[in-house]
Amino acid sequence: MFVQHTEAMLEDIEVEMEDVASEEAEEEGQDLVVDIDGCDENNPLAVTEYIDDLFTFYRKSEVTSAVSPNYMANQFDINERMRGILIDWLIEVHYKFELMDETLYLTVNLIDRFLAVHSLVRKKLQLVGVTAMLLACKYEEVSVPVVDDLILISDKAYSRKEVLDMEKLIVHALQFNMSVPTPYVFMKRFLKAAQSDKKLELLSFFLIELCLVEYEMLKYPPSLMSAAAIYTAQCCLYGSSQWNKTHEWYSSYSEDQLLECSRLIVGFHQNSGKGKLTGVHRKYSTSKFGFATRTQPASFLLLL
């Protein structure tokens, strides 16, 4: 009986210790790294066997395919404001044609990479924009808009021959390299790490699209900009930082590394409905995008 009583006491102590450990883990919560791919082991589309290798490759590629954040200094007839107007308009065109998200991000990437290596007169800037979207569609879309549709949306400012000639010029200037990691691939991965719901996802994409319009954001790699957009969206929705060890593990960025970029995003959010470049704001003011613009900016981040 004594032995049985002692064993029972030991069992009770072990249970209590487990409970205390569980409570401490819940309190510290931030110190646990969640395996976000465990639930997808049987999903062949999730490619869990080499997903980590894939994103290691993406991180290396974003460095080698980066555009100089000062490339406008080499342009004599266009400036960053014109680039912003073009991107803002293309976001509306992308929405009108109901294209895939990937197409928008690749379009912007192609434009910046082309302008970084080729001087352009301003009257050809819109031509570069629609042609870059045509190329991105050919790379990403199942059903590609015809050239005439893009000419029409440009108010017939260019001919079919001009579009096709520009297409050849762009692909040769970029050496036919269309396979580059854009913010989109990192957004999807980091949102999975954040265990996001639809509200967080839409707000994060609203913030990252605001970044696409801003020339100054070229100084950040796509992975950091994506992580900062999600971090900022979490702060908007929850009123405080939610960045934990899981976020850090999969993004490779700490909260401190994101703050500078995040503060800029807060400023874009605050001014998104003002001025002339309001294409992103109008897009995310609709029910289709969850009225994401109604969420208040995380202004407290400006004080950190």
From TrEMBL:
SUPFAM superfamilies xrefs: Cyclin-like
CDD domains: CYCLIN_AtCycB-like_rpt1, CYCLIN_AtCycB-like_rpt2
Keyword Protease part of the UniProt annotation: no
Sequence ranges assigned to domain Cyclin-like in this UniProt record: 88-172, 185-267
Pfam families reported for this sequence: Cyclin_C (PF02984), Cyclin_N (PF00134)
Family stated for the protein in its record: Belongs to the cyclin family. Cyclin AB subfamily.
Biological role stated in the UniProt entry: Essential for the control of the cell cycle at the G2/M (mitosis) transition.
Subunit structure: Interacts with the CDC2 protein kinase to form a serine/threonine kinase holoenzyme complex also known as maturation promoting factor (MPF). The cyclin subunit imparts substrate specificity to the complex.
Protein name in UniProt: B-like cyclin
Organism: Linum tenue
